[in-house]
Amino acid sequence: MRPTSLAAVATLSLVLLGCPEAEEQPQPPATEAPEPDPEPDPDPDPEPDEAEEGAWEELPEAPIAGRFNHTTTWADGLVIVWGGQDQDAPAIADDGAAYDPVTREWQQIPAAPIEGRWAHEAVWSGEELIVWGGTAGPDHLADCYDDGARYDPAAGEWQAIPEAPGDRRCAAAVVWADDELLVFGGHRDNGPPGPGDRFDDGLAYDPATDQWRELPPAPLEPRAGAIAVWTGNELIVYGGHTQADAGEGFEYLTDGAAYDPATEQWRPIEDAPLPPRAGQHGVWVGDELVVLGGDDPDPDAAAAGGEAAAYDPADDSWSTLADDPWPEADYTPVLADDVVYLLGSGSPDPGPDEETPEDPPAFAAYLIEEDQWIERPDPPDGPRMHHDLAWTGAQLVVWGGQAQEEPADGILWDPPA
Fold first, then answer.
1. 260-295 per-position pLDDT tens digit
2. pTM of the model
3. Helix, strand, coil shares of the chain as percentages rounded to 5?
4. Which domain holds residue 319?
5. C or N terminus of the chain, fewer CB within 10 Å?
6. Residue 145 belongs to a domain
C-alpha cells in the first residue's frame, strides 16, 4: 500500500512597504495537482520460466521392455541401460540398450555372456561398461552372482570376466578406481544375513590382466550395504550394517576407512557426526564425501531428522551440512557438476493409523557451494521408484522404474541455463 501524501495549505499576504499606491493583485483560482498513476504491485509469486526452472521432456521409446532395479550408466557419449527386473513378464532381464543424447536415438546392444540379473553394479572404466554381481533371486539377499562381463561400445562386443575369489556375496560396496574395480564387504548369498555372514575383506579386478586380487585386511568390522566412493587416490568405505549385539537384526554403523592402492595401506577415518541410518546415500563431490538420506532403523522411532554431513579426507574431518527438509522421501542421487540431483518416490505410504503426510517433492536438488536444498519441478509422470539416473555432463537422463504403480518411460531433465 502506498503512503498517503499530506498537503499543507497556506495563505500569503503580500505587503509592499513604502508603496501606498500598491493594490492587492488578484490571485488565480487554485487548482488541484493530478494524482499520479498508482505503481503496480510486484507479483508476489511470478511464474518461473524454463530458463530459470529447467524443463522435463520425454525420451524416445527404447527398444527394450520397461524394467526396474536395472543400471543406467553414462559411458562417454552414451547412456547404457542393462539388466533389471522386466515389468512385462515379470522376469529377470538379460538385455540392454544405449541412448545417444545427440541424435536422440536408441540402439539395442548385443546379448551379454552372463545370466540376467538385478541389483547388480555397473561402472564405466573409460573404455568399457563393467557389470558385476547382482542376483536372479526373488530378493537381493540371496542367490547372488560373483561373475560379470565387460562391454566395449566402440566394438559392440562383450567379454566375460572371471568369478571373484572366495564366497559369493550380496550387498557389497563396489566402485571404479581409475584402472581397477574395487569390491568391499557384503554378506553370504544364503538369505538375510545372520551372525558370521558378513565379510570384512575386499577384492580388486584389473581389466588389463583380467585377474582378481585380494586387498589387505581392513581396520573395519564385517559389514554389508556400505557406501563406497573413489576420491582419485583412495577408496573410502563408510557405514553399512553389521549384526546386532543381541544376535538378531542389524546394527547400523557410522565409522569407515580409506584404502590407498598405491601403498596397499588402509587407515581408519573419523566417525561421522550422524545417527545410524539404513539406506544412506554417499556422493563424492570432488573434494568431499557427502552422506545424506536414510531411515531410522528403529521402526518405532520418529521419522529421520534429515541430518547430512561431509567428510574431507585431506584433514580427516567431518562437517555438518544443512538438514535435508524431506527426510521421508526415498531419493536416488546423482552428481551433476556442483549440484546433487535427487529423484524419488516422494512420501512413503502412511500406516493404517497414520495421517497422510504432506508430499515432499519428487525432484529436488542440493546446491553444494550454497549448502542449500531446493525443490525442482516434478517429472511429468510424478514420483517414481526403483529407477536409475545418469548425468551426461549437460542433462539428467532418467530411465525405467515405476511411476504411480505403472511402468515408467524414459525422461530427460534440462537444468536451468
1. 999 999 999 999 999 998 889 999 999 999 999 888
2. 0.84
3. 0, 40, 60
4. 67-329
5. N
6. yes
